[in-house]
Automatic annotation (TrEMBL):
The lineage of its organism: Bacteria, Bacillati, Actinomycetota, Actinomycetes, Kitasatosporales. GO terms for molecular function: alkylated DNA binding; DNA-3-methyladenine glycosylase activity; DNA-7-methylguanine glycosylase activity. This is DNA-3-methyladenine glycosylase 2 family protein. GO terms for cellular component: cytoplasm; protein-DNA complex. PANTHER family: DNA GLYCOSYLASE, DNA-3-METHYLADENINE GLYCOSYLASE. It comes from Streptomyces telluris. Keywords: DNA damage, DNA repair. GO terms for biological process: base-excision repair, AP site formation; DNA alkylation repair. Gene3D superfamilies: Hypothetical protein, domain 2. It comes from the Bacteria.
């Protein structure tokens, strides 16, 4: 075990900053302790590692295990949002101003790891969150490896080669259709090239990711929000986000992507941060249609 301490430059909210990295409440690679601390198992360029981060009120203490421990502690400030600049954001709507006031400790995490965010984002394409979370959990339990450190429940995701070698019946057993599994296999085969996107600007990184068939703007944005800590990678093509943003800012229902981007135009360069703040307020349009139905391919 190795340790490091990082001191935030101002108010800091560990849970909201790192919470976006969790893929559902049963994520084998992420959990929150009773004291609000965060456990994270990941595959670094140096190998598997586990990170435990605790907010001590004015400082953040971290300890790490495994071959990737040194890398995890070296990149700790970036993960915790040290490179993020909340001061660059200016609220333009009353609700956004209130969200900004209520959540001064929100920072945008940057993992520096592309495949780790890309694969679960592909799993989330055109299915319910519960379906995607279940698939991620089952695939890590079957094809991942035990995480270094003291928690035997945690798992590190497979290597790129490991993802590419998953047999078709295991994809099917996890409820992942052929289109999504084929996209993940294609991405795993060019993983080294995709990881380079972590050092690129948003436009270049998005182009790199979308060069893989099956990865579009939605998946690229969801990935870059986490791997690059992008404050502007707004998610387009989402079933719910435009309606939430439109209702929160104008009270209108049925907002589409084009109208959402128009509403977010005053936040150019910070559109993802604006969306995060709006979502934190919990303002949602009244539900009129039935929930998106679960399509379990395992029954086919």
């Amino acid at each position: 075990m190795t340790t490091r301490t990082w001191t935030p430059p101002g108010p800091y909210d560990l849970g909201r900053t790192l919470g976006v990295l969790a893929r559902g409440p049963g994520d084998p690679a992420f959990r929150t302790g009773p004291d609000g601390s965060v456990w994270r198992a990941t595959r670094t360029p140096q190998g598997p590692g586990t990170l435990h981060v605790t907010d001590r009120g004015g400082r953040v203490d971290a300890e790490a295990w495994g071959p990737g421990a040194e890398w995890l502690l070296e990149t700790l400030p970036a993960l915790l949002g040290a490179g993020d600049d909340p001061a660059a954001f200016t609220p333009r709507h009353r609700l956004v101003h209130e969200a900004h006031r209520r959540h001064p400790g929100l920072r945008l995490a940057r993992t520096g790891l592309v495949l780790e965010s890309l694969i679960p984002s592909v799993l989330e394409q055109k299915v319910t969150s519960d379906e995607a979370y279940r698939a991620w959990r089952l695939l890590l339990q079957r094809h991942g490896e035990p995480a270094p450190g003291p928690d035997p429940r945690m798992r590190v995701m497979p290597s790129a080669r490991g993802w590419a070698m998953i047999p078709s019946w295991d994809w099917h057993g996890a409820g992942v259709d052929g289109k999504r599994s084929a996209t993940i296999v294609r991405a795993a085969r060019v993983a080294a090239r995709l990881e380079e996107a972590a050092a690129m600007d948003d436009a270049q990184a998005s182009r790199r990711l979308q060069a893989v068939p099956g990865i579009g703007p939605w998946t690229a944005a969801e990935t870059l929000q986490r791997s690059n800590g992008s404050p502007d990678a707004v998610t387009v093509g989402d079933l719910h986000l435009p309606k939430i943003i439109g209702y929160a800012l104008t009270g209108a229902r049925g907002t589409d992507d084009e109208a959402m981007l128009d509403l977010l135009s005053p936040y150019e360069g910070q559109r993802h941060r604006a969306c995060r703040l709006i979502l934190l307020m919990g303002t949602r349009p009244p539900r009129r249609a039935p929930r998106f139905s679960v399509n379990d391919i395992r029954a086919l």
